[in-house]
Each structure stands twice: as C-alpha cells, then as structure tokens.
Amino acid sequence: MFTRQNRTEIQHFVVTAKQMQAIESRIFDAGMPVAALMEKVAGRITEGILSKIKSISVTSIGVLVGPGHNGGDALVVARELHFLGYSVVICCPFSKQKELTQSHFKYITSLGISINKNMESLQHCEVIIDGMFGFGLERPITDELAEGVNQINAGNKQILSIDLPSGIHTDTGEVLGTAIHATYTFCLGLWKLAFLQDSALDYLGEVELIDFDIPLADIEAILGQTPEFRRITPENAMADLPLPRPLATHKYKNGNLLIVAGSHRYTGAAILAGLGARASGVGMLSIAVPNSIKPLLSTQLPEALIIGCPETEDGAILDFPSNFSLDQFDAIACGPGLTQSATTLVQLILECNRPLILDADGLNILAQLNPILTLSQRQAATIITPHPGEFKRLFPELAEELSNHVFVTQKAAQQSQSIVVLKGAKVCIGTANTVWINPESTPALARGGSGDVLTGLLGGLLAAVVLNQTPIDAIVKTAVWWHAQAGIQAAKDKTELGVDALTLTQYLNLNPIQSRFLNKSHP
Ligand SMILES: NC(=O)C1=CN([C@@H]2O[C@H](COP(=O)(O)OP(=O)(O)OC[C@H]3O[C@@H](n4cnc5c(N)ncnc54)[C@H](O)[C@@H]3O)[C@@H](O)[C@H]2O)[C@H](O)CC1
Ligand SMILES: [K+]
C-alpha cells in the first residue's frame, strides 16, 4: 500500500503570480494536459474541503465561479460534491469564460445543475466555495461584483477560497477593490507571496498548501538555486542551529557577544536582551550598561560580565570605560533601552569592524546619521531589526510602499547592504539575495520587551556563527523562528495575554521544540 509522498521541501518556496505561471507553463510544455492538471488539483481541493466541512451539518453548498481557471477548479469541485450527494448551488456572474471553464459548465449543466448569475442565489447555502479569481486577478473588483462580494462576507458563513481569497493581489497581498473574507484558503501548488504579507492576513483565514506534485526541477528552473523569496520552516530553521556541539568544545569556541543596552530609565531592556542571549547558548556574554544600573544587571545575569560605563546626566551610556576594546568580541548587539542620549556611543559602534545588530534606540540614532550611507560603509555585517515605525524613519523614501512588507524589506537590504529584519505579524528578513519570511507567529509577541529578547537571542547565535565562519543570513532566520516558536508555545500555555517578555525568555529555554533538537544530538 502506497501513501502519498510527504514533500516537506516544497513548503519553503514562495512564488509571485508570474513565477507560478512560468512553472505551470513548463509543466504544460512537458506534455501535461491542462484539463488533466485541473482535474487532479480539484480532486485534492475537494478532499481538503471535505475534511473541513465534515464536522458541520451541511446540506447546501454554494459555489462562486469566475471566468478563468480558478472558476474551472471550482466547477470540478462542484461536480464532485454533487456526486457525493451534496446539494450544490452555482453562481457565475460573468458572461464569458475561458474555454476549459466553459466546457465544465456545459457538462455540469447537463447533470441538471442550474447556473445562477445573481450572487443572492447563494444566500441560503451553509458553506460557500470561492472560485472567482485566483492568481489571474488583474484589476480591482468593482460595481455589482464588489457589492456581491460584500454581501457574501456579510452573510457570516464559512467561506473556503480556492488558491486565494478573490480580490487579494497574489504578490502584494493588497485588497483590489474588495475581497472575500475566507474562513479557509487552499493555496495551490506553491505558497504565493500574498500568504506571507501582513496586508492579506485578515482575509486568508486558516491556510493550507495543496501539493499537486510540481516537479522540483521545474520549480528550481524558474526560481534558481537561491530563490528570491523563501519561507522559514522548522526544517530549514533547525538545520542552522549550532547543535550538536562538538564534544571537545569550550566557551571561547561558542561565541563572545557584547550587548550594549539600557539606561537609568530603561533597565529592563538590558536584562531582557541579556536573557535572550543566555538562551542562545553563547559561550561568553558581556553587557555594557550605565554604571548606576550595573548592580541590578549583575543580580539578574550572574553568568554575564557586566561592564559599567560612564553615563550622561540623564543616565544613558556616555562612552565605554577607558582601555576598553570592541575588537575582542565576535559580535555586538546594540540598542535596547539606550535612549537617544547615547548618540556618540552608537556612532563609535557603527564605526567598528565587528558584526553588529542594531535595534530600538540604536536605530533611532542611526536614522539621524544618513542611514543608507552609514550602513553601506560599514566594514562588517550589520543586521537591523526595525518595526514599521522605525523602518519609516530609516528609509523614508520607501514609506509609501510600506504595506508591501516583502518588497520594502528587499529594497532596504539592497540599498543599505545590510540584513534587514522588518518586524510584523510575518517577520521579513531581507538579505543580499533572498527575503526570508516567517509564516508562523503569534499576536502575543506584539508587546513591549519581546524585541529586546530577539536582539539578545540573535546576538548570541550571531557571535557563534561569526566565530565559526558560517553564513550570517541563515542564523538570522533561525533566531526569528525560534523566538516566534517560543511565543506560540507560551501563548498556548498562558493565552495570548500571558506572554510578557520575561515569560518569553523562559520559553526560549523550556520550549518543547527543543526536545526535537535532541534528535540531532550525540548518539
Ligand atoms: N497553480 C497552477 O498551476 C494551476 C492553477 N489553476 C487554477 O487557475 C487559476 C489561475 O487561472 P487564470 O485563468 O489564469 O486566472 P483566474 O481564474 O484567477 O482569473 C482570470 C480571469 O479573470 C479575469 N479578471 C481578472 N480580474 C478581474 C476583475 N477584477 N474583474 C473581472 N474579471 C477579471 C481575467 O481577465 C481572466 O479572464 C489559479 O489561481 C488556480 O485556481 C489550475 O486549475 C491548475 C493548475
Ligand atoms: K479564489
């Protein structure tokens, strides 16, 4: 007995509409008939739909059909549901269809199922299948069509969208005119960019990838060895964890990190960054803080070397102590809780030749210093971790397009020659060749302090890879994934309200996902 192949590797590809069309064309050129592929895909969508509706009592299913092949998929699904005994109501508010879609119309009509033009025909159905537009949507939905979509949304029924909620732009995730509010969306073949854009989140509902066996060779032929966009998965995130450790390792081989953080006003930020770094397993941790808060840090992080620094009148770090050198560190993480009074210090750090993570006030200070020029002139790698507000201050010329997170992250990384981590529901990581996007997270992390934790965690992991001369890009996505997974687990245990930043640091250590890492441990 054969079971369907579990192709986890396809989970990490992300495509634009144009790339999907190009991949699809290769399949057709190789001899796969279009109708056969539609039949196969729709069969798998039907399985997906049945698994979602089996627990509710459904007698009548409404199917919204568009003019293209998204509509064709919907008609095949409708036909199969009809044969399974469901009462199917079809609505197609278009007078012209593509040839294959037209052919399915003819057949389904011959089975005695009538086709309605008016969207009100769907109002008594318990469930609606949305096959109006997929990746072929090319202009806004307007007029009567828009009214119909809004009416369907207002009906508060379960809506299952095929490929994309109709009205959502495949690449930007933006709403073109209006869009279906799906309960579930079945993305066909490969993840489309819209599934990883914050702007589409409210419309997608629960999402699932329907694999239909696109050969990897066709994907790679179009996307290349280094795809432009990549989705972070447990597999690719864990592959870059510094585990298992070599048996004969010692502390100087596991990274030496300097955190520069905190002020008299914001002591907690330094502690949280320190606790994030602690969880990373970094070999040596030093934390530079204003002299006056050194005792507090020493109590909270007994394993770290706390460096008390001269401070400004308002309690920010003024400078490093005399004879202090940044050269000894593998990496520096700078910014949480510094306040904007630490400008001279941040300038000094930007000039040093150590790999650097800049966050929070570090970014606000950078924003005053011609960011693109400053970053591109740095002699070592820089990772910046802005939220959208900080991003706007750093890259004002990209502000207008900020709703397209993936695009602006890519542009900012290219312009600044840095790694740009744009925070949001779906964190985007722009590197020289690829934008990594984290699909799984939790709103529980939208809370003061969780960014400080990420900075520390990232710093610790970065210090270790710099020392071992492994690529930096890869570890950034691992840190973002680890941080989100800790948040998800904490939210499961304590609700989304119970994940304060300190609790989050505890889940970095205790996260059950870590037991999976043990598989990679020594025999
Ligand atoms: N992924 C695959 O390899 C497969 C995908 N399939 C399905 O096909 C659609 C894409 O089909 P396509 O015909 O290219 O596009 P659409 O169905 O999304 O619609 C295009 C159709 O609609 C017209 N149109 C576009 N915007 C508007 C508008 N605002 N108002 C009115 N009309 C509009 C446009 O002119 C076209 O006529 C994909 O999503 C999958 O569902 C295959 O079935 C299997 C392989
Ligand atoms: K759709």
UniProtKB/TrEMBL annotation:
Keywords: ATP-binding, Isomerase, Lyase, Metal-binding, Multifunctional enzyme, NAD, NADP, Nucleotide-binding, Potassium
EC number(s) on file: 4.2.1.136, 5.1.99.6
Binding site for AMP: G451
Annotated Pfam families: Carb_kinase, YjeF_N
GO molecular function: ADP-dependent NAD(P)H-hydrate dehydratase activity; ATP binding; metal ion binding; NAD(P)HX epimerase activity
Any GO BP: metabolite repair
Reported cofactor(s): K(+); Mg(2+)
Cofactor binding note of this UniProt entry: Binds 1 potassium ion per subunit.
Residues where (6S)-NADPHX binds: 69-73, 134-140, 163, 269, 337, 387, 452
Subunit composition and interactions: Homotetramer.
Protein name: Bifunctional NAD(P)H-hydrate repair enzyme
